[in-house]
Design a protein that fits this description.
Oligomer: single chain
Largest sheet: 4 strands, antiparallel
Shape: globular
Radius of gyration: 20 Å
Strand content: 15-25%
CATH architecture of the domain at 2-118 and 321-330: 3-Layer(aba) Sandwich
Distance between the termini: 14 Å
CATH class of the domain at 2-118 and 321-330: Alpha Beta
CATH superfamily of the domain at 2-118 and 321-330: NADH Oxidase
Bound molecules: flavin mononucleotide
Structural class: alpha+beta
Helix content: 40-55%
Length: 333
């Protein structure tokens, strides 16, 4: 792999390439992949790419920085697996993070590394069974980053019912906001050709039941099909087919808090993947600040700001993977 630095072409170290590829496998809202990378020998920088931010559904870039946290967690797992120690971390005002790596053969490889390539969201209905005690324990045992809290809520308990009500309300508000709905539909890729042009977005081939079609037709039909009534009915069915909701809160509702939350969320998803536990994101209530505030007051978690929720459960097989940008297109120098 070659990349440009100044006017010189350099060979990219295979370890560095693998670490950056791992970071780029992180999830992001609408699969926007809001980052670019810089590699200066073993000094790696991940820079938020705010041109990709979702202006209507994520006006404060909260979800963008949660995604950055997910990418940083992957980076640090891949670095440890390649026997690198992160000897310095530097955060800049624009939210870019630089990690200086040094070889250290005493660093233990992270057993979650193989899960980075396996992890994917599963938006299907689950089989309705409860998580085993062993799986629940393994997920609850994950140590969150500083300032991050996780709450496992069994479907049917009071807190899960409250959260579900807010998810449905959030979904309704989103679908009733034309800019948010447009952002969602524009992110959809209705055929493989369009997917391969952008290497991002939400591929309808992963959603089941939507045949490939030209983009203009897909956008037209989706505009009519995305009604509040049908979407909320299907969302409720999906939630009720799950075992638990898990709520991720932060005590500092700011950029560093969101990045820390993203790191915890990513670790959680990788552990879930290793256990064969399926998960899907439910970010609807947190995208509306008044709704998120009301939710905070209704739930018994004090001043913790709710930022993200997943539903968890079991499903047969695995959905397909979504595409990522090639490394060469997101390297800046
Ligand atoms: C901060 C954040 C918010 C997300 N919100 C949603 C959501 O509300 N609904 C959903 O179905 N997926 C959501 N996703 C999942 C992304 O759509 C998914 O990660 C992306 O399409 C890439 O797919 P993958 O995770 O399977 O690689 C979210 C992901 C992140 C990181």
């Amino acid at each position: 792999m070659e990349y440009l630095e100044g006017n010189k072409k350099k060979e990219m170290d295979l370890d560095v390439r693998d670490i950056l590829l791992s970071a780029g496998q992180a999830p992001s809202p609408h699969n926007i992949q809001p980052w670019v990378f810089m590699a200066n020998d073993y000094s790696l920088t991940i820079i938020p790419d705010k041109r990709k931010s979702l202006k209507a559904s994520d006006p404060n870039n909260r979800q963008l920085f949660v995604s950055m946290g997910c990418a940083i967690e992957n980076l640090s797992i891949a670095a440890a697996t390649r026997r690198f120690e992160i000897v310095r971390t530097n955060m800049m005002n624009n939210g870019a993070y630089t990690f200086d790596l040094e070889h250290n053969y005493r660093v233990t490889p992270d057993p979650l590394y193989p899960m980075i390539a396996e992890r994917r969201v599963d938006r299907r209905k689950y089989d309705g069974s409860r998580l085993t005690q062993q799986h629940l324990q393994a997920l609850s045992d994950i140590t969150p980053e500083y300032g991050v809290r996780m709450h496992m809520l069994p479907i049917g308990n009071v807190e899960a019912d409250i959260l579900t009500r807010y998810i449905l309300d959030g979904n309704k508000r989103q679908l009733e906001t034309p800019e948010v709905k447009r952002e969602l539909i524009n992110a959809m890729r209705f055929n493989l050709g369009d997917e391969l042009k952008t290497h991002d977005g939400l591929a309808t081939r992963l959603m089941g039941g939507v045949p490939p079609m030209p983009g203009w037709l897909g956008r037209f039909l989706m505009g009519m099909a995305l009604s509040v009534k049908s979407q909320n009915a299907s969302m409720l069915k999906h939630i009720n087919s799950s075992s638990h909701l898990v709520l991720f809160n932060t005590v500092s509702d700011n950029m560093t808090g969101w990045v820390s939350l993203g790191r915890t969320l990513q670790r959680f998803m990788l552990v879930a993947t290793s256990l064969g536990v399926s998960f899907s994101f439910l970010s609807q209530p947190f995208e509306c600040s008044t709704l998120a505030k009301r939710l905070m007051y209704e739930l018994p978690y004090g001043n913790e700001a709710p930022v993200m929720a997943l539903r968890l459960g079991y499903a047969q097989g695995q959905p397909l993977k979504s595409l990522r940008h090639p490394l060469s297109s997101i390297l800046v120098g």
